[in-house]
Write a structure and sequence with these properties.
Elements lengths: L44 H19 L4 E2 L2 E2 L1 E4 L4 E4 L2 E3 L4 H22 L2 H5 L2 H18 L9 H4 L3 H21 L5 H9 L6 H21 L2 H6 L6 H4 L6 E4 L1 H4 L7 E3 L6 E3 L8 H4 L20 H12 L7 E4 L1 H4 L9 H22 L4 E7 L6 E4 L2 E12 L5 E8 L5 E4 L4 E3 L4 E11 L7 E9 L5 E9 L20
Antiparallel strand pairs: 1-2, 3-4, 4-5, 6-9, 7-8, 10-12, 11-12, 12-16, 13-15, 13-17, 14-16, 17-18
Length: about 500
């Protein structure tokens, strides 16, 4: 959703044609080469707020894998064991319903927050924006200097400035790669990787090296292209936003026509008129990390970082004019209408999110204390271990879903003379641990009808909570029952 409420000449200091002139991306020059963006920071109240939140999020992103809830990490997406721990609860690949509800609820909540607050995630909480704008670009300005200003320290004037910048980038990328991997590898295992020689764990060392290289590529080279090209969120704005969504907006009714403080003529009536509040200084473009002109309306590249607001407010304050020429507002508010919070999409998103939260909570509370699966072993379908006694060999796979160590016992029901003889009973399991227990299931031969005997294998956990699985024992097809006449033997064919 891109609107162009007015036509205007390019602001001073821009090295590309204006969006109205037909440019495709803000990071491309006319000849198709990349336009490297070096935005000038604009101090202000919004930048102070973003810095405070950003540094809190950096500390949170770093600490989350190390925080424990009930002995489990807050977040651990262990792909090797396929155990996904979120807020201390471990999800398994078999928890398809829970995982589906969780993912669907997350997506719908993103739609709801976007409809209400615009791209607040992109500009304020996304790790790409937080680390790029609050870590890597400040490091770059320290060694290269701030755009538009003279080099102010000895480091910037030294020939070692560029090598030192790359070394610092590399060290920060190493730190970020280990932080990133801590979300997918248990911190205990990651600590072993970090302290041992790379030759002792070459494959894991290569994983860390590749992730570090990707971090360097992203924050040192690709940068804002990740948001413009790789991330689909910006391209989904047209469906996620409407005219009542909160966005960073320029007020053309107040700012147009632009000028330098002189009287201009309106092209329609030809009558003299005082210019608008916009003095066409170009600072909103110079400070934008995406390189766009917010005065051209809502654009895909805008991540709502509010730097243009701080830059414009500073200029308005110096000129003695009211701030807010660029501000947080909906498109309806900019056009003079009232912003509506309650509208069909926000009501539907709220209802769907609430229903998904309720369904997820109920499914989580109803989750069993263990996952139980009965598997038939290879080999003979059944054996006669003694005259008149038939045995089936199975594997009972138990996964402890409790957050503590627990013991599970295995029993067999369905016939008074049927028995379960586990190799280990009870089975002691640590939290999220799995064990396959060999179990011999026995029953008298006379209990089978047409070679089958339905039974129920019950695994009983703490506090007597049972988990039952139906199973069909295999046995002889023509067993002789007490008091019955044996079936005649088949005649031999000559």
């Amino acid at each position: 959703m891109t609107t162009t409420p007015h036509q205007s000449p390019p602001p001073r200091g821009r090295s590309r044609p204006d969006a109205d002139a037909g440019s495709v991306l803000s990071t491309l020059n006319e000849d198709g080469s990349r336009r490297w963006l070096k935005p000038r920071p604009s101090p202000g109240r919004w930048l102070n707020r973003r810095r405070a939140l950003g540094w809190f999020l950096i500390a949170l992103f770093t600490a989350l894998p190390h925080i424990r809830v009930g002995g489990k990490p807050v977040v651990l997406l262990d792909l090797t064991t396929r155990h996904f721990t979120i807020l201390g609860h471990t999800f398994l690949p078999t928890d398809t319903l829970l995982l589906a509800l969780l993912l669907l609820g997350t997506f719908i909540s993103i739609f709801l927050f976007t409809a209400l607050l615009g791209r607040v995630w992109c500009g304020w909480a996304c790790p790409q924006t937080v680390y790029l704008e609050l870590v890597f670009r400040p490091i770059e300005r320290f060694f290269d200097g701030t755009p538009g200003r003279r080099k102010s320290n000895v480091v910037q004037k030294s020939a070692l400035a560029k090598p030192l910048k790359f070394i610092t980038f590399f060290l920060v990328a190493c730190f970020l790669s280990h932080t990133f991997l801590a979300y997918f590898v248990p911190t205990e295992q990651l600590r072993v990787w970090m302290t041992r020689s790379p030759f002792d764990h070459l494959s894991s060392f290569l994983v860390m090296a590749v992730v570090t290289g990707l971090m360097l590529f992203d924050f040192g080279f690709f940068r804002e292209q990740t948001c413009l090209v790789a991330c689909p969120y910006g391209r989904m704005q047209s469906t996620l936003l409407d005219r009542n969504s909160l966005i960073v907006s320029y007020d053309p009714r107040r700012g147009e026509p632009r000028g330098k403080g002189k009287t201009v003529s309106l092209p329609v009536a030809g009558a003299p008129s005082t210019q608008g509040d916009c003095v066409d200084c170009g600072l909103c473009v110079a400070t934008c990390p995406a390189g766009i002109d917010i005065r051209n309306g809502l654009q895909m590249e805008c991540v709502h970082c509010t730097q243009c607001i701080d830059a414009c407010d500073a200029v308005m304050s110096k000129l003695g004019r009211a701030t807010g020429l660029i501000r947080y507002a909906s498109q309806n508010e900019i056009d003079g209408s009232r912003r509506r919070f309650l509208r069909p999409r926000t009501i539907i998103y709220t209802i769907l999110t609430s229903l998904l939260v309720i369904a997820f909570t109920m499914a989580l509370l109803a989750a069993p204390i263990a996952n139980v699966q009965v598997l038939r072993v290879r080999g003979a379908v059944y054996t006669e271990i003694q005259p008149g006694v038939i045995a089936n060999q199975v594997q009972v796979k138990i996964i402890n879903r409790l957050g503590r160590r627990a013991e599970f016992s295995i029993t067999l029901d369905g016939h008074p003379d049927a028995r379960a003889i586990p190799e280990t009973n009870p089975v002691a399991l640590e939290p999220s641990a799995m064990q396959s227990v060999p179990v011999m299931l026995t029953a008298p031969a006379t209990a089978f009808a047409r070679g089958k005997l339905p039974v129920v294998i019950t695994v009983t956990g703490p506090e007597g909570k049972p988990i039952s699985r139906k199973y069909v024992l295999a046995g002889p097809g023509n067993a002789v029952r007490p008091g019955s006449t044996p079936a005649p033997a088949p005649k031999e064919t000559p």
